[in-house]
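I'll show an entry:

:::
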Amino acid sequence: MVAVRERARVRYGDARWPALGTSARVVVTAADRLGVAVDVVAEQLAELDRTASRFRADAEVAALTAGQVTRVSPLLLDLVGVALRAARLTGGAVDPTVGGTLV
């Protein structure tokens, strides 16, 4: 869904679409740039999905869950680091290491 509205002489634009099992939303303050912003965000989400989705057998993270020694991309390395930090900061309430149990 795409919408454009004016507020205080600024034309806002926003778009929403399903992504990663939830939804994505982009809001811009220059409505004429909405398409470019959506393209950038959609590509970033697609890369995240290709890299770390536990629902895709071809995702990069799948090689790790299979116990294979593998070289990982900088993105996956960053994602694992952020996930482990979240586990520390939440006292384990958010835990990226429970994937085997979920499967």
Remarks:
- The longest strand covers residues 10-19.
- Residues 18 and 61 are 22 Å apart (CA to CA).
- The two ends are 34 Å apart (CA to CA).
